[in-house]
Write a structure and sequence with these properties.
Helices cover about 80% and strands about 0% of the residues. It has about 400 residues and is mostly helical. The radius of gyration is 19 Å and the shape is globular.
């Protein structure tokens, strides 16, 4: 009840476009998180994939968004039609869900479908965040992105629950069919409910000189460096299960713990960022991630599991939408989608490298020491970032 009141209270203070895009993300995230929650268990315990193979697949899952974020953002700016570009991205991700049952146990086919799915995410992300920026007052960007990410987190919470129920009471392949239905519903809401920014979008040619302003350049470098020290969700959930002794059957439900905290704290963190300073909150969020690394290195019982998942959700609340709120005001008119996409691309490429490196370290040195190495890298990155701001 309390979370429901929080959603209604936050929703009453933001533009309708932000709410509509939040509903689209809610439905799409139910679809995406159903697959994300199911895959680590399926790959590791079903197909017998090792840490290195999981790292390669997870890196592909993250990296496939990278270059197409640039394309999606630039196309939205160039045509002045961010809604149309976003529709293409959401639609592409939706149709891939029907291909997973046909892939069976083939890792190359699964990897290819994940790449196409994430390509859709890459195309839609910049235009979507640009539409949020256009629709929101400059002084309330943190709150607007917080509300959007809160609704997104509702989907992230429901997706693993739906997947767990389908695995328990129906055929595993039903996860992908139901995932497609939710994704298709998201596309329908976007097409019929989200307002096109229209005249707010200034159609311009890409001006790289404008995107190389010192503040924007520092923001991109900082997001990239921190991305290189960020362990992917797939490994964090697998490590949380293995380092705390939880039965593997509960692995698909672990993202729920992250989503609950994200849902509860996304709007308060957005407001705090608007008041305290967006970069300050963004860097503090990475200190919370460092605490997650420490907990999973130590391991333990279910208390460690709950604490790690809760802090990881708080990390997302303090960083995901806040980064876009940090970068949006730095961009020149007419290049909002493209500029946001550049930062997102740099971050995605960095996290792709991190997934592969972590998988290799875990394969040859074990999960525990891998968290030590990444913890040191993250602490250094935060210290450098704090000094540079």
């Amino acid at each position: 009840m309390r979370s429901g009141r929080a959603v209604r209270s936050a929703a009453s203070k933001v533009p309708s476009t932000v709410l509509a895009l939040g509903v689209v993300s809610l439905l799409t995230d139910i679809s995406a998180e159903m697959v994300t929650a199911f895959l680590p268990m399926y790959l590791v315990y079903g197909l017998g994939a090792g840490y290195l193979q999981l790292g390669l697949v997870d890196g592909l899952y993250t990296g496939a968004t990278a270059l197409l974020r640039l394309a999606g953002g630039h196309l939205a700016d160039r045509t002045g039609k961010p809604k149309a570009v976003a529709l293409v991205g959401y639609g592409l991700s939706a149709v891939t869900k029907l291909g997973f049952p046909a892939a069976g146990s083939s890792l190359p086919m699964i990897g290819g479908l994940l790449a196409v799915d994430r390509a859709g995410k890459g195309i839609r992300t910049g235009p979507r965040d640009a539409m949020i920026t256009f629709a929101s007052p400059a002084g309330q960007l943190g709150r607007a992105f917080g509300v959007h990410r809160m609704l997104d987190a509702v989907g992230a919470l429901l997706g693993p629950v739906v997947a767990f129920a389908l695995i328990a009471f129906a055929a595993p392949d039903s996860v992908f069919v139901v995932s497609f239905c939710f994704a298709a519903a998201g596309v329908l809401v976007l097409a019929t409910w989200v307002r096109d920014p229209g005249g707010q979008v200034e159609r311009v040619r890409l001006d790289l000189r404008a995107l190389l302003r010192p503040e924007y350049r520092r923001a991109t470098v900082l997001a990239t460096v921190l991305g290189l020290a960020t362990i992917s969700d797939a490994f964090l959930f697998l490590a949380a299960q293995q380092r705390t002794g939880v039965d593997p059957g509960w692995l698909p439900l672990l993202p729920v713990g992250v989503a609950v905290t994200f849902l509860t704290c996304a709007v308060p963190m957005g407001r705090l960022a608007d008041r305290l300073g967006r970069w300050r909150v963004f860097l503090l969020g990475h200190l919370l991630l460092l605490a997650v690394y420490l907990l999973l290195f130590v391991g333990g019982n279910w208390l460690v599991l709950v604490a790690a998942l809760g802090l990881h959700g708080l990390f997302y609340a303090a960083t995901d939408g806040v980064l876009m709120a940090c970068v949006g005001p730095l961009l020149p008119a007419g290049q909002t989608a493209g500029g946001l996409a550049v930062v997102q691309t740099a971050q995605a490429l960095a996290r792709t490298c991190a997934a592969v490196v972590f998988g290799a370290l875990a394969a040859f040195g074990g999960l525990g020491m891998s968290f030590v190495y990444f913890g040191i890298a993250l602490a250094v990155a935060v210290a450098v970032g704090w000094r540079s701001r």
